[in-house]
Amino acid sequence: MSERVNVTELFGMNVFNDKVMRERLPREVYRRLKKTVNEGYELDPTIADSVAQAMKEWAIENGATHYTHWFQPLTGITAEKHDSFISAPDSEGKVMMEFSGKELVRSETDASSFPSGGLRATFEARGYTVWDCTSPAFLRREGEAVTLCIPTAFCSYTGEALDQKTPLLRSMQAVNEQALRVLRLFGNTSSKNVKPSVGAEQEYFLIDREKYLKRKDLIYTGRTLFGVMPAKGQELDDHYFGVIRKRIAAFMRDVDLELWKLGVSAKTEHNEAAPAQHELAPIYDEANLAADHNQLVMETLKKAAGRHGLECLLHEKPFEGVNGSGKHNNWSLTTDDGINLLNPGVTPHENVQFLLVLSCILAAVDIHADLLRLSAADVGNDHRLGADEAPPAIISVFLGTQLEDVVEQLIGTGYATNSKRGKNLKTGVTTLPDLDADVTDRNRTSPFAFTGNKFEFRMVGSSDSIASTNTILNTIVAEQFKAAADRLENAADFQLELHDLIKELLSKHERIIFNGNGYSEEWVAEAARRGLPNLPSMVDAIPALTTEKAIRLFSEFDIYTESELRSRSAVEFEQYAKVINIEARAMINIAGKQIIPAVIRYNTRLADSVNKVRAACAEADVSVQLGLLTRSSRLLRELQDRREQLLFDVERSLRIRDAEERAHAYHDLVAADMEALRAPADQLEGIVDKDLWPFPSYGDLIFEVSEQ
Ligand code: ADP
Ligand code: MG
Question: Count of CB atoms within 10 A of residue 131's CB?
């Protein structure tokens, strides 16, 4: 690759974006497609053929031979089914490159290998992928092979959602509709739509690939199941924003170029808190695009790492003893004409609207804290949430001193008469302060923090899709907007009703606001006093999906039917048990085939040494060898016993038929046994000679890359 790149030319070159469509589509077709995209109408089937034709020509000119419907099944990653453009040969044996509107818009997929939680009966294995025309098609290059990827939603024969995308799109419609009603109340007649804007910051680890390949735990589970931090850990804090080493820098440049070509605006990159940990942030986009782009970011990081002899770990907790990785989901609501509903604004009238929006969000988060927590639940994240690094498993909102002060005044007297700037502003009956986005302070420990003109939800796991978090955010906020609009549209005195509503919402949901240290013990106790849910594990969080409250919420806005919710809950429980099962089996294997033999070799070496030393000199002191031998033999015994206990509990848990019960068994028994097994192994790693230890240590894995 040449040293100089023209980013403007490069950006989006692999995307069938607006520019390409304008150039290649007949004017009328372009106009109608744009209308569909901008205003959320259904795609007119009569233009599909024309769009498909242009898309195919563009793809083929760029070297594509295949196309695929790209979708996000419930496993959290993306899936695809490739077809070539080639038609059946004609009578002269000639083939054509074909791609019809029908093939663009819809594809039948054998869906039986994707989780459905019982939605799809086994005899009905068909699933359908349907083009999401609001997310542009793109080309994926893999060496010589070029594939046209069409972002799609994935549903069953009967129309039930089997993916992450469909509910997200439904939730965007819901929040759009209700937010517009709120805007109209404040006299806005010009905005045509409101869309959630999302920027997902992605954390990840980079390690040397050769060393990675020597660790079966990393290969099979994405995290280390054994291992201890060396003396030099994270406490030195010298990695954070440190010089990005040469190899990493080359990797990052590669990632940026790839992403830019795909139209993903990768923006900031820096080293994170833990050694070998990094972060990538794109510029925010509409929620469904952001969700697609985040999948591309993860995919690109993985692939680019391979090209640089590195391995990218997206697991939430690859290493014990240093920070894990998350995804910060920055979320706001923006109109087509550029108004951010979460911007406090500069005029009093915007302030009142902002305070209503804020009150609605606080109410939404308080009422559905359990759902938000659930949206960040994945197996790996259990190691992060509730540990003393990432946001705790308790949902609370950080507003910052200025806003908290305003909220207190509104709750106290019903009027806020002063603000940081000390101005008094009159708006009807309400006296409101002039809010200023720039004075927001920071709190890194809050799971849901107001950061000037957006909320930052920090709980999402690094390997997880951001789709479900945004689906839930959009829906719970739509519910509050709807309640507010229902009430205010019919108010005899709008100003008075508005004032009462804001005061009511804030008083009722004030308990969700917490500006202190979210990592502290005191907060856990305080949150319990306030009655806020604390759901430390994924298995505790899943039932939030199927409460009466959740079923009512999601069916009111047509996001999920009750059967979709039940199927998702079943999928999540199954997923939990499956992942822990894989981890447990990997541990049993590694302990049995690698660690135990290594310890036996070490013990034999010690015993040989004792014999040889004694043979040479009967009076020699061999107490050190004997001490080590006693200790490592004791630990070896412990290791073997715990390995057997784990094996026993895995087999017992695996036989439980009910998915929820099985998941609990994996959580209570198997995960606990795994921790127990790890302890003696980690102690042994500290004793056994390095040349005998069967795989690279933490020191080898995470310091060497960052030192290069
Ligand atoms: P901060 O330092 O406040 O976290 P950054 O400027 O680093 O903010 O941005 C973090 C992420 O938030 C980026 O992905 C950015 O594009 C995104 N972001 C910025 N403004 C908004 C907004 N209004 N809505 C959603 N995301 C936003
Ligand atoms: Mg941030």
Answer: 22
85 and 40 in a common domain: yes
Boundaries of domain holding 263: 171-226+236-421+435-560
Same domain, yes or no, for 153 and 176?
no
b vs e for 17-54, b when ≥16 Cβ sit within 10 Å of the residue's Cβ? Answer: eeebbeebbeeebbebbeebbeebeebeeebbbbbbbb
Q: Whose CA is nearest to atom 19 of ligand 1?
A: 284
Q: Same domain, yes or no, for 366 and 338?
A: yes
Residue predicted with more confidence, 417 or 162: 162
pLDDT above 90 (res 124): no
| pLDDT per residue as tens digits for the range 389-436 | 667 899 999 998 888 888 888 887 766 655 544 343 334 334 555 565
* Domains in the chain, number: 3
Structure tokens given for 320:
């014990």
Q: What is the CATH number of the domain that holds 696?
A: 1.20.120.1560
Pocket residues for ligand 1 (CB within 6 Å)?
197-199, 201, 281-284, 330-332, 340, 451, 453-454, 456
Q: Are 633 and 652 in contact (CB under 8 A)?
A: no
**Which residues fall inside 5 Å of ion ligand 2, going by CB?**
328
Identify the residue with better confidence: 603 or 241. Answer: 603
CA–centroid distance, 448 to ligand 2, in Å, is: 11
pLDDT computed for residue 408 by the predictor: 85
Of the candidates 139, 268, 288, 151, which has an alpha carbon nearest to the alpha carbon of residue 202? 268
Paired tokens of 678: 């790890």
Nearest atom in ligand 1 to 268's CA: 7
